[in-house]
UniProtKB/TrEMBL annotation:
Tree of life domain: Bacteria
Name recorded for this polypeptide: Phenylalanine--tRNA ligase beta subunit
GO biological process terms, semicolon-separated: phenylalanyl-tRNA aminoacylation
Encoding gene, per UniProt annotation: pheT
Entry binding sites for Mg(2+): 493, 499, 502-503
NCBIfam families assigned: pheT_bact (TIGR00472)
Enzyme class: ligase
Pfam families, alphabetized: B3_4 (PF03483), B5 (PF03484), FDX-ACB (PF03147), tRNA_synthFbeta (PF17759)
Length: 861
């Protein structure tokens, strides 16, 4: 909301020398956000004066353009002109002008040599079209005052007849400024000078004048036909509970908008259009009540406020034809819709340059109805902005009278006295004097005297609280240990004790609030699952992987590739009813499709060595059940526990998975750095790390999955055999089809399943202070024997003295029988309470070899 300071000064005790920055500083103290300062004349400098065209001679040019060689008086006759280089002492300047919308005798705006226009455009005498042009006759665009719709500014057409030589800075108020604030959605009353004036008075401890008090609505007898009917109220609330219609005649559509009004509108961010439209906008900015002017001669019959018929069409003021739905509230006549209520009027009844009879509308429309129509039709308007945030329901007759008064004063109109103030009450529509709409009633709120102090930690006396609330416009009465507060009609947001406490704190001063850290209640904190998720994600980052985030939407092909159990059959998946893209219409069963997409984008941008991971939910449909079968509760109503339970029951299982992808090499290139391509070991190590972080050992075993390399794929399981994921390398054909180069290692683990198997407390293995003994063993086994299984046999046979066993060599060739291979393991032994002897280590190694021999026929080389 932009606030022209001279306009705000009419309703507040704003000092004459106050700046926009000072106004913003005061409004910030009562909770508004500072947006900007606007000074339209900030880029203008130098002599810019009123001039009168004495003569203009058209001169056709070779390029087909016709220019005018003008003689313009810039100083009163007989008085010296301004001094300056290029300014004729006689007060008459020769100026070349390419515009043609003015004539001799017209008074215009002249920028003299030495002036500077927006964009650092400097005016100086220059030779052009065979003349020395000493100045420029200016348009609104050249002065930075608006769009150049009509060419040169002709002051007479604006109702102005200033003396030649008058300083334009003073004439147009170019030295004035406006402060702009951001208005939050709950404070719609501040979308007006009326509302902000109150807030400025509260911030400064001064008085404010309500502009509505200066207007006395005329009593209306209901002589203009108005009907309000609503067959589809939203949540039982009628779309319109007050509609005021006033008729004026004899309007002069050519009457110019006064300079003071156009200046204020411009400072407020609006363009001056015509006298009727400008008055309508001016009253809306002043009071906060949107209103509309119709050409009364283009209305067929009376006014009806109703819901639209499905498929009705309306061409709005932005010249777009719109198809209406049954949910749209419209203002209509006997021929059809005249406008979307509270959003935008229609072109058929628009005020034009021939309009002499005007119907003035000021109504109170329901916020939800307006918001729905605005969103449905993608329409943005100043009226909708205010109705959505709440308009004072008592203001409609005041605003209508204010518009009528200004039309009479500025456009020569005559008030016919014809009009209607239709109010919709619980008993139905009525034009009875003094009737008020149901929305104007504000329920009384009970506020305990100690509630504010208890919530905020700062003492507020009863007198302070009463003073703050009454300053807001509330009616307050005391009832023993509580205050009974009735909010004013313009504060629909004050409905609970907490709302009132917030206002007390706001007016009491945020700077006085104590600063204390809250103490967390005992017995709360992160759940076990949340702790485990954080531990896994942080652990992978600590290991050097980079976390990414991808969309959970996948295609049919991605679901079949990565979402299946390994046999290649397309698994069931949850299908979106309204997908962002028809291609990606399924919810993911695996994290890997998104990770692959991230890797593709990084590779396309030149990043060759990648180690990425992502944690997130996957979505697994229940067999034979449809997701989301429960009826969605209506908006605006809190669902009960049974409804929430039914909604939860309709949700699919959503376990938390973590997945990773490795592309390129294990380390970046560098001098003296030995790099190796990533392989299955990288994926397997990262997957095992997930288990280690949670204190669970993941057991790998050879597996088959159609997306993985047939010899480099491991299934991951818990000790009890529960499958929790895969690790390995993508099949070369799959990697090639995905435009991924070389080897691509991936893993995915069901963190939720691992977390459930994890102990509540992970106990670290004690460290021994005694030295270790390392012995190697090479075993010849059948070529199809799995190294992991042989390693497991060695661990079991060696017993508790074995600290670690690592495979460091696999050999097939001369010296090893055909169909066999040699596996070499490094076995490290250590005791917690003593130094092992060589014999003890050898005995443990021999026991390990015996178990391997029994199970796999292993022979020691």
């Amino acid at each position: 909301m932009r606030l022209p300071l001279d306009w705000l000064r009419e309703f507040t005790a704003l000092p004459a020398d106050a700046t926009a920055e000072q106004v913003l500083a005061e409004l910030v103290t009562v909770g508004f956000e500072e947006e900007a300062v606007h000074r339209p004349g900030a880029e203008l400098r130098g002599p810019i004066v009123v001039g009168q065209v004495l003569s203009m001679e058209p001169e056709p040019q070779k390029n087909g353009k016709t220019i005018n060689w003008c003689q313009v008086r810039v100083a009163p006759e007989g008085q010296p002109a301004l001094e300056g280089e290029g300014i004729d002492p006689s007060g008459v300047q020769g100026i070349v002008c390419g515009a043609h919308n003015f004539a001799p005798g017209d008074k215009v705006i002249v920028t003299l040599p030495g002036a500077v226009l927006p964009g650092d455009f400097r005016i100086s005498p220059r030779k052009t079209y065979g003349h020395v042009s000493a100045g420029m006759i200016a348009s609104a665009r050249e002065l930075g005052l608006g769009e150049d719709h009509d060419g040169i500014i002709v002051l007479g057409r604006m109702g102005l007849d200033p003396e030649v030589g008058t300083d334009v800075f003073e004439l147009f108020g170019l030295a004035e400024e406006a402060a702009e604030i951001n208005v939050t959605p709950d404070r719609g009353y501040a979308f007006s000078l009326r509302g902000v004036a109150r807030e400025y008075a509260l911030a400064t401890g001064t008085e404010a004048k309500d502009p509505a008090d200066a207007v006395t609505p005329a009593p209306l007898d209901g002589s203009y036909p108005v009907t309000v009917r609503d067959d589809a109220p939203v949540y039982g609330v009628p779309g319109c509970d007050r509609f005021v219609a006033r008729v004026v005649e004899g309007v002069d559509p050519t009457a110019p908008t006064p300079v003071w009004m156009a200046r204020r509108l411009r400072l407020a961010g609006m363009r001056s259009i015509s006298i009727a439209v400008d008055i309508s906008n001016y009253v809306m900015l002043e009071l906060g009540q949107p209103n509309h002017c119709y050409d009364a001669d283009r209305i067929d019959g009376g006014i009806t406020v109703r819901r639209a018929t499905e498929g009705e069409r309306l061409t709005t003021l932005d010249e777009k034809e719109r198809t209406l739905s049954a949910g749209d509230l419209v203002v209509a006549d006997d021929s059809g819709p005249l406008g979307i209520a509270g959003v935008m009027g229609g072109a058929a009844s628009e005020v034009s340059s021939e309009t002499t009879r005007i119907l003035v509308e000021a109504a109170h429309f329901d916020r939800v109805s307006v918001a729905r129509s605005r969103r449905a039709h993608k329409l943005s308007s100043e009226a909708a902005k205010r109705f959505e945030r709440g308009v004072d329901p008592l203001l409609a007759p005041v605003a209508a009278q204010r518009v009528v008064d200004l039309l009479v004063e500025l456009a020569g109109a005559r008030d016919t006295g014809q009009g209607t103030d239709l109010v919709v009450t619980a008993e139905g529509p009525t034009t009875a004097a003094g009737a008020t709409p149901a929305s104007a009633a504000r329920p009384e709120v009970r506020l305990g005297l100690e509630a504010a102090s208890r919530r905020i930690g700062l003492e507020y006396t009863a007198e302070q609280q009463i003073g703050y609330l009454e300053a807001l416009g509330c009616a307050v009465r005391r009832d023993s240990d509580a205050l009974l507060v009735t909010p004013p009609s313009w504060r629909h947001d004050l409905a609970t004790p907490e709302d009132l406490i917030e206002e007390i704190v706001r007016l009491g001063g945020f700077e006085d609030l104590p600063s204390t850290l809250p103490v967390a209640p005992p017995g709360r904190g992160l759940t076990k699952a949340q702790l485990h998720r954080r531990r896994v994600l942080q652990g992978l980052a600590d290991a050097g992987l980079t976390e990414v985030l991808s969309y959970p939407f996948v295609s049919e092909a991605q679901n079949a590739l990565f979402g299946s159990s390994g046999d290649g059959a397309a698994p069931a998946a949850i299908r979106l009813e309204n997908p962002l893209s028809a291609e990606f219409s399924l919810m993911r069963r695996s994290i890997l499709p998104g990770l692959v997409g991230v890797a593709q984008r990084n590779l396309a941008r030149g990043f060759r060595d990648l180690a990425l991971y992502e944690g997130g939910l996957v979505f697994l449909p229940r067999t034979g059940e449809k997701v989301g079968t429960s009826e969605i509760p209506p908006l605006g109503a809190m669902p009960d526990e049974q409804t929430l339970d039914a909604l939860d029951a309709g949700l699919p299982p959503q376990p938390f998975h973590v997945a990773g992808i490795f592309v390129g090499h294990d380390v970046p290139a560098g001098a003296g750095v030995a790099r190796r391509p990533v392989d299955v070991s990288d994926a397997l190590d990262a997957a095992r790390l997930v288990g280690d972080l949670l204190g669970v050992q993941l057991v790998p075993s050879r597996a088959h999955h159609h997306a993985f390399h047939p010899g480099r794929c491991a299934a991951l399981a818990l000790a009890d055999g529960t499958h929790v994921g895969y690790a390995g390398e993508l099949h070369p054909k799959v990697a090639a089809s995905l435009d991924l180069p070389g080897r691509v290692a991936v893993f995915e683990v069901d963190v939720e399943a691992v977390s459930e198997a994890a102990p509540d407390v992970v106990v670290a293995r004690p460290l021994s202070g005694h030295p270790a003994t390392t012995q190697d063993v090479a075993l010849v086994v059948a070529a199809d024997a799995l190294a992991g299984d042989v390693e497991g046999a060695l661990r079991e046979g060696a017993g508790e003295l074995l600290e670690s066993v690592d495979l460091f060599d696999v050999y097939e060739g001369p010296g090893v029988e055909e169909g066999h291979k040699s596996l070499a393991f490094a076995m490290r032994f250590r005791a917690q309470d003593r130094t092992l002897t060589a014999d003890e280590a050898s005995e443990a190694r021999a026991a390990a070899v015996r178990v391997a021999a029994e199970r796999f026929g292993a022979v020691q080389r």
